[in-house]
From TrEMBL:
Domain named RDRP C-terminal head: residues: 49-245
One Gene Ontology MF term: RNA-directed RNA polymerase activity
Lineage: Eukaryota, Metazoa, Spiralia, Gnathifera, Rotifera
Organism whose genome encodes this protein: Rotaria magnacalcarata
Protein name from the UniProt record: RDRP C-terminal head domain-containing protein
Biological processes annotated in GO: siRNA processing
Any one Pfam family match given in the protein's UniProt record, by short name: RdRP_head
Gene Ontology CC entries for this record: nuclear RNA-directed RNA polymerase complex
């Protein structure tokens, strides 16, 4: 004899109400990134803009395109989804079947990825600085040559190498170029953020339970390009902040 199902009823207890809601809940993978939007939109982008950087913008776009292709090629090779994982060396997950189940040589694998990215980083670090170390007069023995500087240059020690080789005079021009690298890295993202914020202003403040705020579309640009020359960017930021503090009326 077939057993009859128990009659259902509307629970009035707290646990019962929660159970009823969970039972009827439809999975929703939507993630509200409103706080992330607020955080990124408050970043002082304008503090990295330098007068005179426009002349470097065209070349900066070309070089960034090459850098992004190199980085994406590395990410595809190892099945890494997040740019930050490659840049930092802290790999959270491999999506490539070849490496997803790797356990024995995981340490060596991560070291290989770190080394591969360092090669890319060094390539574009040299592309940035080489023009500032060109010798115009070969008869001047005291002039430092790029072939020697390139051996000294490191990601962290970029400004130190300038000082060591008495090349502080080129720093102002290097700031213009670094500013261009920053602008081409973030200009599309800034447009995206501004569109999102504008759309939020045009919406009512109250939303029903079934409504959700509009999310920006997936953003596939890479952001690490500008930070190849991070010591120069910090010089720009410090100077901008110093000027703003000495002139409070100036807009930040």
């Amino acid at each position: 004899m077939e057993k009859k199902d128990k009659e259902s009823y509307q629970s009035t207890t707290v646990l019962g109400i929660i159970y009823d809601k969970v039972a009827s809940y439809q999975s929703n993978l939507y993630i509200n990134s409103e706080e992330e939007i607020k955080a990124t939109s408050s970043f002082p982008y304008q503090s990295f803009t330098v007068n005179g950087s426009d002349k470097y913008m065209k070349d900066a776009r070309i070089v960034k395109g090459e850098y992004d292709r190199d980085l994406k090629r590395l990410m595809r090779q190892y099945g890494i989804r997040n740019e930050a994982e490659v840049v930092s060396g802290y790999i959270l997950q491999f999506t490539s079947r070849q490496y997803a189940n790797e356990t024995k040589n995981l340490y060596d694998l991560k070291n290989d990825i770190v080394h591969a990215y360092r090669v890319i980083q060094e390539k574009y670090l040299h592309l940035f600085w080489e023009e500032f170390y060109q010798v115009t007069d070969e008869s001047q023995d005291e002039q430092v040559k790029w072939s020697e500087v390139s051996k000294q240059l490191t990601w962290k020690g970029q400004i130190d190498v300038l000082t060591f080789n008495d090349k502080e005079s080129v720093l102002e021009e290097a700031k213009k170029k670094a500013s261009a690298w920053f602008r081409v890295t973030y200009q599309t993202w800034i447009i995206q953020i501004n569109k999102y914020r504008k759309s939020q202003k045009n919406k009512p403040n109250t939303l029903t339970n079934n409504q959700r705020t509009e999310e920006p579309k997936d953003f596939k640009e890479l952001f690490s390009f500008a930070w190849i020359v991070y010591p120069v960017l910090l010089e720009i930021y410090d100077e901008t902040r110093s000027n703003a503090e000495s002139n409070p009326k100036r807009k930040r």
